[in-house]
Amino acid sequence: MSSNNDSQKRFDELLCLVVEEQATTEQITELLDIAEHDAELKHKLKAQLEIDFLLSQVEQTEQKANVFVDAVLQASASESQIKDFEKQVIGAIQAEADAAKQQALRQEQQNQTPIDNKVVYLPWAISGFSMAACVLLSVLFFFYGGRPITVAPMAQVPVVEVEDNGVAVVVNTVANKRDYRIGQTISPGKLKIEQGFMELEFYNGAQLKIAGPAELEVISAQRVKLLSGKVMTDVPHVAIGFTIDTPNSEVVDLGTAIGVSVDENGQSQVHVFDGLIEAVDKDGNKQQIAKGEALNIDAPKMSEWQQTKAKAGQFSEFSEIADLTVFAIDQKHQRWLEMRDLIIQEPSLVAYYDFEKDSSKPRILKNVANTSEEFNGAIVGAKWAAGPWPGKSSLDFKRSSDRVRVDIDGRFDEFTLAAWVKIDSLDRTFSALLLTDGYRPGDMHWQLGQFGQSRHGLIVLGLAATLEQKGAYKGRNYNYAPFFSVADSGTWYHLATSVSQNSKEVKTYINGELVKRQPLLYFSDFWRIEKANIANWNSKKNANPLRNLNGSMAEMMIFSRALGDDEVAQIALKD
Fold it and tell me: Mind telling me which residue stretches traverse the membrane in this protein (predicted)?
């Protein structure tokens, strides 16, 4: 299993290099060798090449075709039985493209109208390149090692269906020391709240409010076990049957609003404020309790239980949730405002987009750093929306054209990028955060990745070093995985990454926590941004691969130095 996982991981790394046009001949050979032993990886490679490497790369298509074809030919050079066939295929395709080009030129001369020959014979070039790569890959796959290999039809490749293991979602959390986030999925298991409040909505429709300190075990979307503390429920008709286990009973909610408490000695109380519940003892005996009544359950047998009147005062802390929520929201927004005012004074702050709408220029994303108004961004397509907390705004990116266009001058020895991001879906190979135009030596590409049928995404920082290594400019992707799954859709994250050539490190942060530290493998005379897109990419080709972000962004900071761990935690508003 470990070997398979390692092969899959290496395959994804190599495929990423191919998509980013950074793969060497040796790396392409290694990629083909891994794919040769796995039918699913063969299909994945073929589909990825067609989408990202072939059809999307319009400009200099023939040049890219020659690079890839040469690499495949080198990989299969020892296979004399197919070498002539490969040359014939390539020759036939090249002849077809040349014929189309000549025909277009003759037409241009006859009509005396200027024609961009890249456009005229482009379909032939794309078709030729696509056919060449696919045929050569097929030949290599079928005859690799001098023997036929049976490839399963596409329909027979098992489809990996993404599973959601959650049973509830966090809809509110107030004054909670633990790192629970609104929108976070809760899976079966222990749940401990030391202080504050948390509100959950279960997949079956039941709502559960928890006051800390409390500890419970989430069993399913229909059942929890309260070990200690206090909870209150709101169970609509569709969720009737939601059950709370206590040390000595089962409390079945028949469509009610109730309060349940368990003290340190394991003694529990059930107060019915609306509707009806059914209490079940250890022997299976049942007793119904209606609105206005309560039970003291301090023994396993129902005969020892005491029925009393419900007392709302015993759950008075829950009445504070609304006020505390408003206070916490106001407090967080105030903390952000204070942080923003402080960070604007930071000398290394190159650009700071706070994503606050300027009513006088609503299609301009203002750079609030003390640098240059020329760094202001132009909003294209994206719509203003709510941010990660009330009072904070964001831009929503949905369509393939949505983006913020920026031009940020400067060259840096080191840098930090930070952003508040909400991801609705990772529905393409790469989803842009900040991508420089094209991908030149010195450029940086910060984006999210989703390869093939992987259950999780990843954070990708691509760096194209300017310094030559053995005669070639070196590019490298620094990845962090796993990050984000389908169950996390709609969740806000604070993401940051830093690069330091002094400490020779690349660091990745999520919500103010350092999650990965990697060695910087290739050094550069400088790193730069210049013309770039937030949440999209301009490949500087006639057609652009789809890399638009499907989600929202509420902040983007760019520093000319690598921030420390404490500084990243500060801008992430980490408690």
Answer: 119-144
State if pTM tops 0.90. Answer: no
Q: Please enumerate in sequence order all residues whose Cβ is within 8 A of that of 341, keeping only pairs 6 or more positions apart, or say none.
A: none
Topology of domain 168-319, per CATH? Jelly Rolls (2.60.120)
Question: 97 CB contacts (<8 Å, ≥6 apart)?
Answer: 62, 121, 124, 125, 128
Please write the tens of the pLDDT for every residue from 177-206.
Answer: 677 877 788 999 999 998 888 899 999 999
**Does residue 74 register a pLDDT over 80?**
no
- The neighbouring-strand residues paired with 233 are 208, 258
Distance, in Å, from the CA atom of 47 to the CA atom of 432, rounded to the nearest integer, reads 21
Which of residues 320 and 145 earns the better pLDDT score? Answer: 320
- Say which residues have a Cβ less than 8 Å from residue 414's Cβ, sequence separation at least 6: 498, 499, 500, 501, 502, 527, 560, 561, 562
Domain 344-571, classified CATH 2.60.120.200, yes or no: yes
Strands (E), 71-194: 168-174, 185-186, 189-193
Please spell the DSSP secondary structure of 498-549, one letter per residue: EEETTTTEEEEEETTEEEEEEE--S--S-EEEEEEEESS---SSSS------
pLDDT of 139 reads 42
Q: What is the distance of C-alpha 79 from the center of its chain?
A: 42
Per-residue pLDDT tens digits for 19-60: 655 667 777 878 887 877 777 777 667 666 654 443 343 334
Confidence of residue 100 (pLDDT cuts 50, 70, 90): low
Q: From CA 528, how far away is CA 448, in angstroms rounded?
A: 20
**Chain mean position to CA 397:** 14
Question: Measured between alpha carbons, how far is 401 from 313 in angstroms, rounded to an integer?
Answer: 55
Contacts of 26 (CB under 8 A, 6+ apart): none
Amino acid occupying residue 253 = D
Segment holding 73, helix H or strand E = helix 61-75
Give the SS3 label for residue 22: coil
Neighbours of 547 (CB within 10 A): 25
Residue intervals in the chain for CATH 2.60.120.200: 344-571
CA distance linking residue 322 with residue 300, whole number of Å: 36
CB 101 within 8 A of CB 120: yes
Please state, as a whole number, how many other Cβ atoms lie within 10 Å of the Cβ of residue 231.
Answer: 22
Burial 236-269 (b: 16+ CB within 10 A, else e): eeebbebbbbbbbbbbbbbbbbbbbbbeeeeebb
Residue type, 525: D
Start-end ranges of CATH 2.60.120.1440 in the chain?
168-319
The whole-angstrom separation of Cα 462 and Cα 470 is 20
Stated as kind and residue range, the H or E segment containing 294 is strand 293-297
110 vs 403: which has the higher pLDDT: 403
Percent of the chain with pLDDT over 90: 49
For 287, the 3-state DSSP assignment is strand
Q: What are 275's two structure tokens?
A: 């509707």
